[in-house]
Amino acid sequence: TIILFFYKRPEECALCDKQSFVLTDINDDINAELAVFSFDTDIGLSSVDLLIEYYNITEYPVTVIEDTVHTGLINKNSLTDLLCEQNNLTICS
Question: In Å, what is the CA distance from 17 to each residue of 55, 81, 82?
Answer without folding.
Answer: 21, 21, 20
